[in-house]
Design goal:
By secondary structure, the protein is of the alpha+beta class. 48% of the residues lie in helices and 13% in strands. It is globular and about 40 Å long.
């Protein structure tokens, strides 16, 4: 099942009730088999592409009024893979904010 198919209906329903959302992402949601954001990371989480798709789904249906990334311990992310995922997320959010400001 795609991320849009799994998350889309809930996000669309939420869009009927709110005018904006705070998007909070604990980076240990990323599958620990990909990389570990902190000591709480565990297998079975999202792949980075799935996380970015989920954020895109929220962006497509709801105005994000604020966002936060949490639970990152760089000493555990030795190869910097989670840092890369976080950077991609921030880039996506930044591009979205810029696009909304210019429209």
């Amino acid at each position: 099942e795609s991320v849009e198919a799994a998350l889309g209906p809930a996000v669309k329903a939420l869009a009927q009730r709110v005018t904006g959302v705070y998007l909070h992402v604990d980076l240990d949601v990323v599958d620990a088999d990909y990389a570990r954001a902190n000591s709480y990371a565990s297998p079975g989480g999202l792949e980075p592409d799935q996380l970015l798709e989920a954020i895109s789904c929220v962006i497509d249906h709801l105005p994000i009024v604020a966002a936060g990334l949490a639970a990152y311990d760089p000493s555990i992310d030795g190869a910097g893979r989670i840092r890369g995922v976080a950077t991609e997320m921030l880039d996506l959010l930044g591009r979205t904010a810029e696009a909304r400001e210019s429209s």
